[in-house]
Amino acid sequence: MTYSFHAIRWLAFSLVVFSYGHAKASVRVTSVDCPSISMVSLDRAITFYTKVLDFHLVKMEDSSSSARLAPAMPPKATARTAKLSLGDECLDITEYSSPKGKPFPDDSRANDLWFEHIAIVVSNMNEAYERLKVAHVRFVSNIPQTLPVWNKEAGGISAFYFRDLDGHYLELIHFPSGKGQQKWQMPSKKTFLGIDHTAIAVSDTQRSIAFYRDKLHFRVAGSSENYGEEQEHLSGVFNAHVLITSLRAESGIGIELLDYVTPTSGRPIPSNLHVSDVARWQIPLEVSPGSSSVKKIDEFPNTHWIKVSDRDGTDREATWMNDPDGHLLELIRRGASMEPVKQ
Length: 343
Fold this sequence. Notes:
By secondary structure, the protein is an alpha+beta fold. The chain has a domain at 5-23 and 103-262: Roll (2,3-Dihydroxybiphenyl 1,2-Dioxygenase, domain 1), CATH 3.10.180.10. It is built from five helices and 19 strands. Strands 1, 2, 3, 4, 5, 14, 16, 17, 18 and 19 form a ten-stranded mixed beta sheet that branches. A hairpin with a 2-residue loop joins strand 4 (78-86) and strand 5 (89-98). The longest helix is centred in the first third of the chain and has 15 residues, at 5-19. GO terms for molecular function: metal ion binding; methylmalonyl-CoA epimerase activity. It comes from Tunturiibacter empetritectus. Keywords: Metal-binding. Residues 31-175, 194-334 form the VOC domain. This is VOC family protein.
């Protein structure tokens, strides 16, 4: 009996996703909070997200004195932050006035490891696509793509990649009946419904699962292998062949791992990519109060929890770290003793 290349590659992928041994987790993530990105102009970004994509402005604050961002900011940094909401989900956007961050690299591709996007769920893809065309948004996909029916996990899902005014990648996604979370199947008169997940490019699915599932207690919610002309036209990457793994915590949006089998030309995250740089995303992860100190996990370079108080008087502890490919994570622990969990 012989097997095609795709069948062999899928078998190996499945073994990684579903059979990789579980290590005892020292930090239990309970929720994925609002992703955070840097902007060139906060006012311009607010207009784009609220007028084109129907986000709502929740609040604005001076981040130079914000406990939410201060520990991760460069010394003497000044910035303004806005919290935007869409449905039940949210997005934090920040403009750094000092120091100014580097702009988004002009030659970025979807397979570069600094790639990250949020997937905005829509009730009607055609209506959403027309809204983008009227706004003269920068497209990545040529047109919305519907994934083929042979793809058991993703078949029938339609998606479209585009970029905001500062170059951040964004995705529109529509789930047909039987796909995605039940909340996305509810009837709605709104076109833009909420954020399903944030997607990140990774270099090694097995290594990323070992980190997110076995160290942070995410669960693998699904997986697929996407290739063919639909995936090429969606991502704008020629010969795109992607292993996709969906991760979920107990609540909040998901994290989706995008591992490009081909092409292999994706570039690593630069070591000098700072939180103020436009290409730098930050993913906040709420952890259980009893989670142990991160100094017990070798992969985490930042071992210090910082105790801060938000403006509403809520105490929390936070620490920042990179995942195996350099994506920036913020761990947040609220109302907890700093005593580590016994191993």
